[in-house]
Amino acid sequence: xxxxxxxxxxxxxxxxxxxxxxxxxxxxxxxxxxxxxxxxxxxxxxxxxxxxxxxxxxxxxxxxxxxxxxxxxxxxxxxxxxxxxxxxxxxxxxxxxxxxxxxxxxxxxxxxxxxxxxxxxxxxxxxxxxxxxxxxxxxxxxxxxxxxxxxxxxxxxxxxxxxxxxxxxxxxxxxxxxxxxxxxxxxxxxxxxxxxxxxxxxxxxxxxxxxxxxxxxxxxxxxxxxxxxxxxxxxxxxxxxxxxxxxxxxxxxxxxxxxxxxxxxxxxxxxxxxxxxxxxxxxxxxxxxxxxxxxxxxxxxxxxxxxxxxxxxxxxxxxxxxxxxxxxxxxxxxxxxxxxxxxxxxxxxxxxxxxxxxxxxxxxxxxxxxxxxxxxxxxxxxxxxxxxxxxxxxxxxxxxxxxxxxxxxxxxxxxxxxxxxxxxxxxxxxxxxxxxxxxxxxxxxxxxxxxxxxxxxxxxxxxxxxxxxxxxxxxxxxxxxxxxxxxxxxxxxxxxx
Amino acid sequence: xxxxxxxxxxxxxxxxxxxxxxxxxxxxxxxxxxxxxxxxxxxxxxxxxxxxxxxxxxxxxxxxxxxxxxxxxxxxxxxxxxxxxxxxxxxxxxxxxxxxxxxxxxxxxxxxxxxxxxxxxxxxxxxxxxxxxxxxxxxxxxxxxxxxxxxxxxxxxxxxxxxxxxxxxxxxxxxxxxxxxxxxxxxxxxxxxxxxxxxxxxxxxxxxxxxxxxxxxxxxxxxxxxxxxxxxxxxxxxxxxxxxxxxxxxxxxxxxxxxxxxxxxxxxxxxxxxxxxxxxxxxxxxxxxxxxxxxxxxxxxxxxxxxxxxx
Lengths: 497, 311
Description:
The complex is a heterodimer.
Chain A (H helix, E strand, L loop, with lengths): L6 H16 L4 H29 L3 E5 L8 E5 L1 H20 L1 H7 L5 H20 L3 H20 L4 H32 L4 H13 L5 H18 L8 H7 L2 H27 L1 H6 L2 H22 L3 H22 L1 H31 L7 H4 L2 H4 L1 H15 L5 H14 L4 H30 L14 H19 L1 H13 L3
Chain B lengths: L4 H6 L7 H4 L6 H21 L2 H9 L2 H25 L13 H14 L4 H9 L1 H22 L10 H8 L10 H23 L8 H27 L2 H27 L20 H25 L2
Helix pairs in contact in B: 6-7, 7-8, 8-12, 8-13, 10-11, 11-13, 12-13
């Protein structure tokens, strides 16, 4: 037992404690504390990643003196630690990059509560990534749901309150369905530990037993989590939720929270149901179709959006569609593409959500396209950051977006069915064109001269530049060295089941 | 934008709560006038018998469709779930592993956790990590309610009496009632003692942190309602609540972190189990119950305070 194996536990307990501690601090101290301890978490998680790469296996960690299945257990492999590392970097950059707007949007007396929620959310994300127990997953899912509603309502304007109520109702529906699925699976297997559940399910399916109940449970779980993450028919809450929240919240919700739900769902498919059984069930094809619908319709809605944040939010719906399409394609290539896209999208989308408020600030605090004319010239630094993120979304080479589109295409070639291949290629082509249409239109709008040519007087602060540059650096690393990340994800998948 | 009403409603572009949620700057008089005007309009509408027509024209049968779809999908979900339940394997017969976990808890629970109450042993010892999360769920809910209801520059209703004034009702101060105060004087100590009993006996019988804390929170609310906020503030001030919640949750995280750490690394954890049945038994269960109880009690009392007066 190396000391490093304790680190996943530390990340969870430390985040929970930090959340409680921030209620006792002032807003400013809470920010400094949050930033510094998240740096600490990044170091801890990097050690875990290094350790799992070096040993080449995942390790389980017993929570308490009773071994699983009686007690709780967490498990860390390459995939989990890689996700945790990138998510923590995005979280840190979101907090740093949006700090000015946190102070502007939120009442002074409640800023520390905002950091409390952010820290509790970090704890929940960490726990969902590490957990090996489906009920622990549910408990921390609840924390994630509550904190995500909390960071929406904290802005205290009518629009976000309404969006938060809507978001909460849909999220609670999702949680309820998830719990229902967990109950059904518990009834079938008598276990909550993922590995033990898998054993029983394998025994049932191996004997040619009744799969109806398992399929139903899986269906309920899938619907619950896809409502929460915003798969195609359930994507209509996205623009309001992401579009009007304070920038840090929008960035964290779109790039981390929805991805966490997908990762939990993927963990259930991979570890609980087992990939052999999952590929025999029809759920895969349904996800593929819904994902493709999400890609096309999300992009079309983004074309029609009347202000920039709604456009980005609708584009999130399309990107969630990509991820589910990857899961639907199946096979190691499909899953690798989906997981890589989770990373690429979370790095890119957070950058977009953090830069648009600066552009609007340079254009009289308006997010409408009309007013944004020339904002990239008034505020060139932010315009540059926005442009880089937009290029990644379109899929220009050397950026992460290009690598993930390439991965999807090559996964589709290897999937074995001609019809699937044609459908996926058509969808990829159509969506790339649509993506390019609305992002290039926005870029032209932002960088063409408008009536107002004065440079903005708003000071950015070094921390904003550092955090944005970090995000772009991670984005470029994902794009240029995509083979490193895909090989890591493939090795992680091998030890994930 | 040439979008249909339905699409704009679906994507939330129309802000139906605009007048309700945004703080408007109108004075009380004009608000009264508006209200009177609204009432008059509604009366007129109902009298002329055109109400149905107008509402129907506004929604164009959308709500009818909405209800039909809602009912149909609920019936379908019920049918599907009933079908799934009918297909569940029989408990413990078709796959005997299903009883494996329960058997261990029942057979060895008392011996391993030192608690007579197996449920307490399960939630606070075997699966303590889940309960650690669960108590933080409660804490998160408290933070969210605080954000919504605590008064600040954006949320500026003055006192709870204002709400009654806006609604045109008179605020009735319950703490001026002799019956309330005299009954509360007798009841509150009893409820408190009962709450403490429930809290401290979680490891031996039914009870524990969540239920005991709820009873104590109820006693605090009754005290505050009967004797007024001023007196209650002297005993359970906001500051005390914050400190107690902070201390309880930090203790919880620290204690459980220690147990997880020692357990996983196969170190001895120096926490005596005690004899099952005694009040000092069950290892960490009693202190954790107290911590959870404090959090629950102050959360309930905090909710009451926030809803009543926004502090």
